[in-house]
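Instructor's aside before we start: the two examples that follow are unrelated to each other. I chose them only because their records fit on one page, so don't look for a connection. First example below.
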Amino acid sequence: MFKKVLIATDLSPASHAVVQCTTGLRSLGAQECHLLQCLNLRRAEAPGTEQAKQLFSEVMERQKAVLEAAGFAVRTEVSTGHAYSEINRIAEAQNCGLIVVGSHGETLMREALLGGVACAVIHHAKRPVLIIRVLGPSEKAADQPSARSCDYLEHVLFPTDFSDNAAHAFRVVQHLAEMGAKEITLCHVQDQRRIDPHLLDRLEEFNRIDRERLAAHQQALTASSKLNVHLDISYGHPVAQILKLIADRHASLVVMGSHGRGFLNEAMLGSVSHQIARQSPAPVLLIPGVES
């Protein structure tokens, strides 16, 4: 499904954890990795640029060795320019099926590349983006790894708003099922802010309709296998409810549409998918909608 992957990396220890976790993408059919370091335009014009590029190359060679040991064919590149635009441009030019970036805590990582740039990558990406959560020093014990064990197929969580773009993301969930996902949870959150108080008397009706929609997804996933598929409908704030479900179900991967109506709308930075990408303890795979 994601044969060729672009990994946005930098000199931070967190980026090494992202690379380590990327090795788990072999289970999703990934075969090639394009390791990309972006050199800021101002930094490119500063003294010591050549030394910086040499350091980048040395770090990338170590990261390359990790990926090659996992069975990937690896290409490395140091690019000069605005990082978010270069990441998306090169992903398109190299025909990468997936972009991988890191996140840290409740904000996307503050390092030079994996900081606010990652937010911009998500906002402008035309390719699916995988956000891998990396634990910060204050979050982990001494014996705790800096990234989760990334067995992406252990338990997949799919929040949906039943939009066309969510339907596009569901096709990725179907591929994950075909690749051997062990469990999948399909969920929908009835947004309390939209229903309370004027539509509260219709909540039971909404639940019935949406449960039927989820059941149709469940049938599509289980038609040719004995896959364990759970359905979940809740009422409340979408971000809080989805984060709770991620924790309760020990989700190994969250798949969401990155554009769409309702709570998946990416027009605002504070949208649910962005907030889940920031806060989820599990990796989040954002699927952009099909352009009309």
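Example two begins here.
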Amino acid sequence: MSKRRLGRGLDALIPGAKQSIVQSIPIDRIDPNPRQPRRDFDVESLTGLAQSIKEHGIVQPLVVRRNGDRYELVAGERRLRAAEMAGLTEVSAIVGDFDDRRAMEMTLIENIQREDLNPIEEAIALKRLRDEFGLTQEELSSRLGKSRPAIANSLRLLSLEDEIQESVSRGTISAGHARALLGVTDSALRLQLHQEIVTKGLSVRQTEELVKRVQDGPHDPSVSRETPPPPPKDPNIAQVEDSLRRILGTKVVIKDRKGRGRIQIEYYSLDDLDRILEILQR
């Protein structure tokens, strides 16, 4: 697997950041970032980060800019929220002189590089970088260390219906499921297939086969060749699956048999596998 080229520190966003002066700033003087693309902050993940901050402090300083006698957050909202949860009154931060455009660009790129976004949030951030800054897919690929096909596939998710996008955001289905549904052009049929995927818990491969059958001829869900849905899962196992889906940003299935079993984690490219491994290593 190839090494990821970006997202390894502030130098990826701010040239010379390692040589910048880190200041200690009161948390109550830092205002939230109005350009923050993240819509969901997982409480369980924040709690773990807060515990780490209690034990080791904030390893990676925040990035802020002055706003009168206060500061506006540019990068590091998860760290700021976790620091508040940990009971800190001050945080270490680099104070930069950024205009609105540069601050927005840094916010979006930092979130994408650090993979803090779910697939839909990432697609929205990419769209903003493209539309508001006029960046081409090739320029996005160069800045983010992602392939052009990965950029294109991410942006295509925004052409799906809101209901399907919401399922991807929640982790009910993965980006792989959503990309398979893009092969269906009829909106009503796509929503029908989405419901079938959720109800039956189909894998990405099963979804691809389902879409292929639809493309080959009319689809009647009452005559589906898929196996019947499995029996209801233990609620505790389902809760763990849901937590892992949110943390890893992909479909996770736990096969439990009387306290023993296996965990299946899906990935859809070597880049995606690299991303998951980095999260597990953290």
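The mean pLDDT is 80.
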